Amino acid sequence: MIHLYTIGFTKKPAETFFTLLKDSGVKRLIDTRINNVSQLSGFAKGTDLKYFAGEIGNMSYEHNIDFAPTKEILSLYRTKKLTWPEYETEYLNLLDTRKIAQKINIEKLHETCLLCSEHKPEKCHRRLLAEYLQQVRNNIRITHLI
């Protein structure tokens, strides 16, 4: 069984964020944002996250832009030109176009956590990505860290 986690950093102080990751046994953090130099949270910039993940949780960190939505899709959703169901379809089609299922070594996702900014997974691409991977490989168990 592959255990895949997801987490968003919004509405979480650093202590909560890193405690959730550490307590779950996450070994690798994959940043799925388009822009990982965001100022939304002081600890959530890519270079800082890499440092904190390693120092606090002994986790590796990587930024995978192939997992991120395009700026266009995200902008259309944020400006309400796309509904959530339309956004889901666009994003999932993008994953197919990028051939994510073929490119990723799913076995290596064990004890990995997909990161983005949204607090909860319901309307977030990290959940869509996790479920997409679960459809490719049905032995993935997803846990959303909130």
Overall pLDDT: 95
Largest sheet: 5 strands, parallel
Q: Strand order, main sheet: write it out.
A: 3-2-4-1-5
Roughly how many Å apart are the termini? 22 Å
User: Which topology does CATH recognise?
Assistant: Cobalt-precorrin-4 Transmethylase, domain 1
Q: What is the helical fraction, as a range of percent?
A: 40-55%
Number of helices: 6
The domain tally reads: 1
Q: Give the C-level CATH assignment.
A: Alpha Beta
What percentage of amino acids are in beta strands?
Answer: 15-25%
What's the architecture in CATH terms? 3-Layer(aba) Sandwich
Protein name: DUF488 domain-containing protein
Organism: Dyadobacter subterraneus
InterPro entries: DUF488
Pfam families: DUF488
Structural account:
The protein has one domain (2-66, 106-145): Cobalt-precorrin-4 Transmethylase, domain 1 (3-Layer(aba) Sandwich). The chain is 42% helix and 18% strand. It contains six helices and five strands. It has a five-stranded parallel β-sheet, sandwiched between helices. Helix 1 (14-24) crosses helix 2 and helix 4 (84-97) crosses helix 6. The protein starts with a strand and ends with a strand. The model has no long low-confidence stretch (mean pLDDT 95). This is DUF488 domain-containing protein.
